[in-house]
Amino acid sequence: MDDTSRKAYLQSLKTQRKKAHAALEEEKLARTAQAKANRLNNGKSPRKAGKEQATTEAVPPEDGLFDPASSAEPTAITPTPNTNTTPRAIAPGITPGTSADLIDGATGLTEPRALDGAKPSPLYAHLNSKGYFITPGLRFGGDYSVYPGDPFRYHAHFMATKYGWEEEITMLDLVASGRLGTAVKKGYMLAGQKPRTEGDGSKDLINGGEVRAFCMEWAGM
Amino acid sequence: MAATNYLDDLTNTVLHNLEYQHDWTRLKVHKQPGTARPLISGLPPRRLYVHPDEQIELIMAEKNREERIPQPPEFEWVLPTHLAEKWTIKGFAEVFDSIGPIPPSDNPQESSDLEDEDAQWKQWRGSKRGKRILMATVQDDSTVVYYLMHDGIVKPRQN
């Protein structure tokens, strides 16, 4: 292919593109005009508008809704509420900071509610008052993993389980937990809070008496 | 009557296991009027428990003295239980409240001879030690498992 023919070919491509652009532009203008006409007609004869929409609305409806030029003007002209442009609350281009607007009647629920009865357990309070660090203990089969310091620096010393003062403890649980605790180089702690009696107000930790804790280890025999 | 027989049989099972399988000596059954359950005391053939802090003190003391410090066995409390029983925190607390750190000995000077010196490692022995019991759990096939139970928060051994 020589130079002149190449140039001619490129020129033809350019003109083709220009023509295509012009045609698209024309089509777009025609469509927006049509949409305007539709909206104006909508209030008067919805049947006709619907019919016209069916013919023209091969284009998705978002085109009309989210094009600010086409959606802002008609509302200014027709003061009657427009049923076609529903999500007025969700302004285009604004990301909402909360999802509360999306839920009906959710405005009152934005404040976090206080949870009822979320008091720390007596064992937690007891260990915490002695300076231990406590993390959930399910991984070792107890209620808490108890660390003598920062969990990043220390291994847990105990796996602790809380019981009621007169809650029945199955012996097999003690044997199993005691052995598991020893196997992972921890003590197995079981603890319960004595119910408050009249004499010991000073030992009150959380609405009760003193916390008794026992630590178990396999005896190695 | 049946209940007392059951406890006596349980105690005998543990007693025999300690004597003939684990070579404990000077076994004695303590029946206190306050507690329904008999307790056993005895002397194991080897030291049963060394507190981790005592171990550290011993190592330091042995380094200074350049000789080994003897670790004689200590008398221990044994609580016989059966696997089918259900215990409560209250029950354990009552047992601990009814005992002293070391079982009452026939020969008191034996336990007091440790207290002449004021060495650091001695605070873990004799009457200065924390309360602990050896919980013996019996199964129907007469297998007995032993677990040490400490009163309060006692850190685990570095084994």
How would you describe this structure to a colleague?
The complex is a heterodimer of chains A (221) and B (159). By secondary structure, chain A is an alpha+beta fold. Chain A has two domains: 3-71 and 85-107; 122-216, Trna Endonuclease, Chain: A, domain 1. Chain A contains six helices and six strands. Chain A has a five-stranded mixed beta sheet. In chain A, helix 1 runs antiparallel to helix 2 (46-56). The termini of chain A are far apart. By secondary structure, chain B is an alpha+beta fold. Chain B has one domain (2-150): 3-Layer(aba) Sandwich (Trna Endonuclease, Chain: A, domain 1). Chain B has four helices and six strands. In chain B, a hairpin with a 5-residue loop joins strand 5 (132-138) and strand 6. The longest helix of chain B is centred in the first third of the chain and has 20 residues, at 2-21. The relative contact order of chain B is 0.19. Mean pLDDT of chain B is 84; it is low at 111-116. The interface between A and B is large, with 38 and 35 residues. Chain B: Residues 98-123 are annotated as: Disordered. Chain B: Pfam families: Sen15. Chain B: Keywords: Endonuclease, Hydrolase, Nuclease, tRNA processing.
Blueprint (SSEs and pairs):
The complex is a heterodimer of chains A (221) and B (159).
Chain A: H1 3-42, H2 46-56, H3 62-65, H4 68-77, H5 122-129, E1 133-136, E2 144-147, E3 158-163, E4 169-170, H6 171-183, E5 187-193, E6 211-218
Parallel strand pairs in A: 3-5
Antiparallel strand pairs in A: 1-2, 2-3, 5-6
Chain B: H1 2-21, E1 25-30, E2 39-43, H2 52-65, E3 76-82, E4 86-87, H3 89-98, H4 108-112, E5 132-138, E6 144-151
Parallel strand pairs in B: 3-5
Antiparallel strand pairs in B: 1-2, 2-3, 5-6
Quick summary:
The complex is a heterodimer of chains A (221) and B (159). In chain A, 39% of the residues lie in helices and 14% in strands.
The CATH first-level class of chain B comes to: Alpha Beta
- Distance between the amino and carboxyl termini of chain B: 44 Å
CATH architecture of the largest domain in chain A: 3-Layer(aba) Sandwich
The total strand number of chain A stands at 6
Distance between the termini of chain A: 97 Å
Structural class label of chain A: alpha+beta
Largest sheet of chain A: 5 strands, mixed
Give the spatial strand order of the biggest sheet of chain A: 1-2-3-5-6
CATH architecture of chain B: 3-Layer(aba) Sandwich
Q: What's the number of domains of chain B?
A: 1
Structural class of chain B: alpha+beta
Average of the residue pLDDT scores of chain B: 84
Helix content of chain B: 25-40%
Major sheet of chain B: 5 strands, mixed
Radius of gyration of chain B: 17 Å
Number of discrete helical segments of chain B: 4
pLDDT below 50 for ≥5 consecutive residues: which ranges of chain B?
111-116
What fold name stands as the CATH topology of the largest domain in chain A?
A: Trna Endonuclease, Chain: A, domain 1
